[in-house]
Amino acid sequence: MDIQEEFSNDEIKLLEKYVTNINKNIFVLKNLPEVIKGALFSRYSRSSLGLRALLLKEFILNQDTSFSDITKNENDSSEQQMRAIQKAQSFYDRILDGFGDDSIGELGGAHLAIENVSMIAAKAIEDFRIGGSPLEKSTRYIYFDQKVNGEYKFYKEPILMTSAYRELYLNTCNMLFDTYNKLIPILTEKIAATFPQKNDISKVAYNAALRAKVLDCLRGLLPSSALTNLGLFGNGRFFETMIKKLHCHNLSELQDIASKSYVELSKIIPSFVRRSEITSKYQVAFCDFFEKMKEDIQNASDNHTKDLLKKENQKVRLINFDKEAVNKVTSALLFENSLGPLEDIQKLTKNLSKEDIDKILDTAAIHRTNRREKSPRALENAYFTFEIVADFGIYRDLQRHRMLTQERQQLNCNLGYYIPKEILNTEMEKDYRKAMDVGKNVFDQISKELPEEAQYIVPMAYNLRWYFTINLRALQWLCELRSQAQGHPNYRFVAQEMANLVIKEFPEFERFFKFVDFEGHDLGRINQEVKRVEKEKSRVGV
User: What is the topology classification, in CATH, of domain 316-410+463-528?
Assistant: First the structure.
């Protein structure tokens, strides 16, 4: 139903710049800084006025907001707008503080670019799951062999650069990049000979798939210090949490990212990140808590787990699961359309026949025609914990799934490394293994004195141990997405194996993995690239 608020012609002219319509009950804000949008929505929840009337009365026509200065014409410099925001800062802070809820920080956001940071830093940033959406430079579409001023692009960690390991670190990183660079043309020629271009495949699509295959094989040679870029959209609450935790990180690179992110975000969403300023009472108190907690957990781990063997377990293991998972999912499917208590429904379903259980579970599965059609939330009642041992490159891909609980161990060279089958038993194998062995040797030397900083030297092919705790619905999405033909073969294996382990334990859940691709694919990216090229042709009318 459209809302008929009364506005004068002058008021309509003022509002039209900031809302997509004047008289409908659904509209979008536009041309407003994040600080104004956040404060506006916070007031909105405690006002009898509609949003347009509220914007007009309490913001546009309110001298305390510096509204006209902040939103002047587009030719104003960012410094002018920033001064206007700072002038009105106390007004916005009063509104946000008066709301009394941290969730107010979710009402404004920003796009933050973080460039030339290490793979380690990128993973630390992406580990903040809720309220942020990261996109990272790809190792399968971009060559990482470029040099700037004659130097490969990797992070020069300050402590290592002032230590006795400086030259060892620099030489080893350069050696890993040199090997990566050397093997690109050799492997490209080999794979092209093994999988020649077919007549019905365009050269553009073939070359893109070939490049992805080559770079997928060789990315394990890159040190974890290799520089990458991130595009990150997040709300204010996300960024405040990110900055607060990065300030407390042991690695100076992460502390530097925290400080620089605070400075830049303060220009756009100052009210939302102000508590993460490094000298604020909130930040000081948080770091005190965080550091004490980390120290106690570290001591507890040292006391109780130091004698455990650093062994490489099988790649994917199902560690924990709920034996009542089938009954809980079945009961939850019935709950929404029932009037009875969940506990009674669970008792009822325990006594149903296998045939009845199958029919109920089928209601959530048989109508799906592709993996993008989501299953009901009832599947979220079944939880599984997997321990995974796979190379750091695969962790980088799988870690981005935010609807799960995950923790990883520190990067090391104790669990062996991955070597692609395309390199095994070829002239390239010697160079590849030599690079891995040198990387491990240098890591072992540095880690005795500087265990955290030593992570920067670890080649991405070395295995890492981590765990996922994930519900069935999120697992369905992960396995069906990451098993697709165009994916990296290593994470395809992990996705396939997680699905297989759940199906083995709960055959009733096999119906929920109908779009998992269990096949092997040699040049898996080719079909995706063909589709991309065809789309491009259709856009330009070729």
Answer: Gyrase A; domain 2 (3.30.1360)
